[in-house]
Structure formats: structure tokens, C-alpha cells
Amino acid sequence: MVRLRTDAGLTGLGEASDAFGFANTTKQDALKMETQLRQFFELIRGRSPLDIEAYRQAGIGIAKAGGLVAATAYSAIEQALWDLAGQLLEVPTYALFGGAVRNTLAVYANINRATQPRTPAGFAATAKRAVAEGFQAVKAAPWDGFPKPGSSAGEIRAAVDLGIASTAAIREAVGAAVEVMVDCHSFFDVPLARTVAERLEPYKLGWYEEPVAPERTEETVQIRRSIRQQMAGGEILFGINGFAPLCRTKAVDVIMPDVKHCGGLLEMTRIAAMAAAEGVAVAPHNPSGPVSTAASVQICANIPNFRLLELQWGEVAWRGDLVTPAEKFERGSIQVPDQPGFGIRLNDKLVQAHLL
């Protein structure tokens, strides 16, 4: 989490999580991120929180060249500036992007991290719990732990079969009315991606996500043109230029910019506008904490091609209480707040209890 303070006593929030892998972040990783954050902070130290474009122009090249950690640090500072801007002007941040066109956002439950054991029965049970809470769309990554390149054909076949069986179990558990998506985390090549997609057709997926890395645009196009399911991707791409190949080639039906990685709020609006011009929907990647969710809500409130917002469901029980007012989901949706900025503050006591 990032908190920027002004001499007027206001504080703005940003989130810089998920840059090292969700299960393996170490103190050394955290120090790496802190170093990057401090470097980007020097670009705004002593300046008005409204000088956001100056910050963007000074930092975007550094972020693009520095890889995921730099992009995430850069984006977190940008988020916090927009939170401050809304507070200074006493309006919700979305008002600075043209105002809200919706006051409720559809949310899907990413059940992947909450699923144990990672078996068909485990995925089915977790999906049922999410639907019981009111979510009408769920997503899992049932091929996590896929055999490394060079593994035997038998190992690969067994892993593919397990992922398909898990998807089938989710569909059976939640019924036909609930949307089901799967994330392949780029484990496949083109032939295997096609084969898996064909085998998944009976389960009527909402989308088939990143069977190959989204940077491999030509391969993604090949897959998209040869399967029936909609495809999604782009979770860690940076900037308009990062997303342009996917949109302009119609390689995917849904792009997934992440406010933590793509360059922040303003860059996300520009990415969404480019996608809208190409007839591509936006479903922001957000397997993140409540600050990232609050920032994403501000943009999802007004972009015309919004589809769904991601929630990392069931990961820890205390998640929602990290901010005040507490994060709240009802019937698979989240309300767009009407408070200045992002409309949240950190619960410092709980933050301190869970520091690395």
C-alpha cells in the first residue's frame, strides 16, 4: 500500500501488490518495491497533487523500461495522486474522468486462491460457496502447477484432463445461469490451446483467458480464430502500446488492464477508449486488495465498454476490513461510492497486524 501526504493534511492511497507472485512475496521483494516507490516519489515530492500529467510524462518511460515492479510502483503513485485530486476538489475521482454512468458494478469471484484441495471436488465446493454469497460469475485457474516444457506426454495429458474435469465440476456445481471463466496462465502452445478449448465447449465459458502469453499476439490471433469461446487477456501489459496489438488484431474479445500494472487510472481510461474503438470489452484484472479495487471502481464507473470487475474472493477473512468504510459486495456487485477521492481510508491497526 502507498499513502501520499500533503501539507494540507490530506492522504491519498494506492496499491502496489501482486508484482512478485501472490504466494511468494518476501521481505526482500518488499524492499525492492519500496526502493522503486521512493524513486518515483521523487518526481512529485513538493509538487501539487494535481500535477498528475507532469508525473506521468516524467515517469512513464522509466516504468516501461523497468519491468513489472517499476510499472507497479509507478502506477501506485499515480493512483494515490488521483485519490488526492478528488479529495482536494471534494468530488469522487470518477467525476474527474467525466462522471459515473453506472452506480453498481458487476463483480466476478476469482475462486482460485481460495480452493483447497485443487481437485474437481475442491473447485466445485469453492464455486458453490461463492455463488451462495450472491456472485453470478466465477473464475478459476485449474491448470496452475502445469508441467514444465519438456515434460512427458503422459504428465501433460494428465494435467490437461484434471483442469478440464475441474472446469466441468465448477459448471455442474453452479448451474447454467452462472458465468464461468477459466484462466490458463499461458501454460499452453497453440495446438494444445485449441485442443483444450474444443474440449471445454460443452461448459459454455464466459471467456478462455491467456492460453498463451498475451505478448504473443500472432499466436493469440491463431487461437482466437480457430475456437468458439470468447478470449480474454492482458493482465500485466503496460500502457496503450502494450494493449494495442491485442485490440487492433481482435486477438481477444475482452482485455484485462490492471490499475496496478497498466500505468494507473488515466492510462486505463485511454486503454479502454482504444479498446472501445475496436469493439473490445474491458474487464479489469484485479486479484488484489481493497485499495486496488477502490481505484478500479472509479474507472469502471464511467468507461462505456465495462464488462466485469474481478474480486480475489475468499483469500483471507480480514480483507474487507483493511479499509474504512469496509469493502462490501452484495449479490455479486459493488456500489460506486459518492465520497471524495476513492472514498476509503486504511485501517491502520489491521494493516500493522499483517505487515510482512
Topology:
Layout: E1 2-5, E2 11-14, H1 27-41, H2 52-65, H3 67-89, E3 104-110, H4 120-132, E4 137-140, H5 153-174, E5 179-183, H6 190-200, E6 207-209, H7 217-226, E7 231-233, H8 239-248, E8 254-255, H9 265-277, E9 281-282, H10 290-300, E10 309-312, E11 323-324, E12 333-335, E13 345-346, H11 348-353
Parallel strand pairs: 3-4, 3-10, 4-5, 5-6, 6-7, 7-8, 8-9
Antiparallel strand pairs: 1-2, 3-12, 11-13
Helix pairs in contact: 1-3, 2-3, 4-5, 6-7, 8-9
Structural domain tally: 2
Number of strands: 13
Specify the biggest β-sheet: 9 strands, mixed
* SSE sequence, one letter per element: EEHHHEHEHEHEHEHEHEHEEEEH
CATH superfamily of the largest domain: Enolase-like C-terminal domain
* Shape call: globular
CATH class descriptor of the largest domain: Alpha Beta
Beta content comes to 5-15%
Cα distance spanning the termini = 12 Å
Architecture of the largest domain in CATH? Answer: Alpha-Beta Barrel
Gyration radius (Cα, Å) is 20 Å
Total helices: the number is: 11
Mean of residue pLDDT? 97
- Given helix and strand content, the structural type is alpha/beta
CATH topology of the largest domain: TIM Barrel
Can you walk through the features of this model?
- By secondary structure, the chain is α/β, with parallel strands linked by helices.
- The protein folds into two domains: 2-91, Enolase-like, domain 1 (2-Layer Sandwich), CATH 3.30.390; 95-349, Enolase-like C-terminal domain (TIM Barrel), CATH 3.20.20.120.
- The chain contains eleven helices and 13 strands.
- The chain has helices at 27-41, 52-65, 67-89, 120-132, 153-174, 190-200, 217-226, 239-248, 265-277, 290-300, 348-353, and strands at residues 2-5, 11-14, 104-110, 137-140, 179-183, 207-209, 231-233, 254-255, 281-282, 309-312, 323-324, 333-335, 345-346.
- The strands form three sheets. Strands 3, 4, 5, 6, 7, 8, 9, 10 and 12 form a nine-stranded mixed β-sheet that branches. The chain has a two-stranded antiparallel sheet with strand order 1-2. Strands 11-13 form a two-stranded antiparallel ribbon.
- Helix 4 packs parallel to helix 5 and helix 6 (190-200) runs parallel beside helix 7 (217-226).
- The longest helix has 23 residues, at 67-89.
